[in-house]
């Protein structure tokens, strides 16, 4: 009989984030489809009571918690100790956790401590004939594999956007506190630095991905580069369309070559074989050639359009649904004006 542990780190206010709620609903369906399984939740954070109450009616039979100031912030030693203690207390055989930064950093080590196994970047879970199996992508999202394991405990980290977020009613909850032998704490988080929300260009929840390519910084038909205007057009579009910003490798690499670049662009924006594979409903590539090492990162973009001066660019070779053979500066000027007029 499997004991399925939903394991999550709470937010600063003690609640659960979107990805944790998605993972909870995946754990809940797995528990429902594995007859006779036991469904347990484990919560770690400064405070866990609000999260416990939010998930009290999800079908969990035990709510375990590790809370306190030491567990407020991400730190390998304390996060790993808390996760290990909860897993042992639950007698968990399958541990399902959201693939956020804290779990991604910690749970491989926890698997080692528990003598178990871990699978990361999982995109689906199912039980066939009473046997749980996970789905994940391999070789830069080119091949999909379904696998199951006999080793226990088995830790599974679920990616975002793969399950509906749990939205059951809240209830009263009694959290069983789990004792953790505090490790020697060498790391202290002294503060967080993050860009203001309107300067945050990577928005995983956005419907639209705007990709900017190196063409934005290249000499244009007037013989000049117009990086300053490119910045203004791209940022204006992002702000009005609330789109997420992706980039090609060439554009983010340009700063290393001392060329005029878009200042808000970093390697984190890079989409492709050596970049990310974001999930958005629509994508618009601008001033980007559409070469395979880049477009392989578009695997999960459903509707694809591109704007390029070159009618023979790679987007025209079956990689986009629509290619606008046009000057992206002109198009974005017009689109931004239209968006401004309608907002
Ligand atoms: C091992 C390996 C891994 C790689 N990994 C990645 C990766 O992860 N991600 C990635 O992106 N690349 C990756 N690359 C690089 C990739 O092959 C391409 O070199 C890169 O994507 C090209 O970037 P680009 O399209 O922005 O630039 P370019 O190839 O320079 O294309 C610029 C485009 O802009 C167009 N243009 C210029 N001005 C305008 C205008 N005014 N209006 C409209 N269009 C205009 C031009 O017609 C041109 O098509 C990798 C390469 C290798 C070898």
Explain what the structure shows:
Helices cover 26% and strands 25% of the residues. The protein has 343 residues and is α/β, with parallel strands linked by helices. The protein folds into 2 domains: 3-177, Rossmann fold; 197-342, Rossmann fold (3-Layer(aba) Sandwich), CATH 3.40.50. The chain has a 9-stranded mixed beta sheet, with helices on both faces. A 5-stranded parallel beta sheet has the order 11-10-12-13-14. Bound molecules: flavin-adenine dinucleotide. Residues 213-215, 218, 220, 248-251, 270-275, 287-289, 291, 293-294, 297, 307-310, 313, 327-329 line the site of flavin-adenine dinucleotide.
Topology:
Elements: E1 3-9, H1 18-33, E2 38-45, H2 49-54, E3 62-67, H3 76-90, E4 94-98, H4 101-114, E5 117-128, E6 131-138, E7 143-147, E8 154-158, E9 176-177, E10 208-212, H5 227-241, E11 244-247, H6 249-253, E12 280-286, H7 292-295, E13 301-308, E14 322-325, H8 328-342
Parallel strand pairs: 1-2, 1-4, 2-3, 3-9, 4-8, 5-8, 10-11, 10-12, 12-13, 13-14
Antiparallel strand pairs: 5-6, 6-7
Helix pairs in contact: 3-4, 5-8
Flavin-adenine dinucleotide is lined by residues 213-215, 218, 220, 248-251, 270-275, 287-289, 291, 293-294, 297, 307-310, 313, 327-329.
Strand order of the largest sheet: 7-6-5-8-4-1-2-3-9
**Can you tell me the CATH architecture of the largest domain?**
3-Layer(aba) Sandwich
Output the CATH class name of the largest domain.
Answer: Alpha Beta
Strand content: 25-35%
CATH topology group of the largest domain: Rossmann fold
How many helical stretches?
8
DSSP, total strands: 14
Major sheet characteristics: 9 strands, mixed
Structural class: alpha/beta
Query: Which stretches are low in confidence, meaning pLDDT under 50 for 5 or more residues running?
Result: none
Structural Rg = 23 Å
Chain-averaged pLDDT: 93
User: CA-to-CA gap between the ends?
Assistant: 56 Å
Order of helices and strands: EHEHEHEHEEEEEEHEHEHEEH
Bound molecules: flavin-adenine dinucleotide
**Can you give the helix content as a percent range?**
25-40%
- In CATH, the homologous superfamily of the largest domain goes by the name HUPs
Rough outline? elongated
How many structural domains can be distinguished in the coordinates? 2
